Amino acid sequence: MTIxxxxxxxxxxxxxxxxLDAYQDTLYPPESRHVLELASLRQPNVLFAVAxxxxxxAIGCGAIVLGPEFGELKRMYxxxxxxxxxxxRKLLALLESGAVSSGCKLLKLETGPYQHEALxxxxxxGYERQGPFGDYTNDPLSVxxxxxxxx
Length: 151
Description:
By secondary structure, the protein is of the alpha+beta class.
């Protein structure tokens, strides 16, 4: 497995993001989904990481949007065939390291209450629940978390 910063504008990565969207469509209504579109993932303030299996196929991805006060973790996803291999943890480690190298000290994220595995994963990685941030509002279908990544 390899994990590296790459462009999101690749056919297998686009297909992976489509899998994520299809999965989230089964869980939440459109008004409770806060996706970042492909064009936004290509912006210079975005770190985008891709995990690839031994054949070079994309099996996971994640992004951090770097802002002036904090970074926001977006588009974290591991395909079902990539799960159980530590892909998410390695993706998150690379993203956090890249954020620290960019001067970021705090990461925040929004996920949903029906994604139990994601909630457990983020908690095990040191993320703690908090209230809404940025342009988010209180929504019973949103869970907000944050982690200080640099002193």
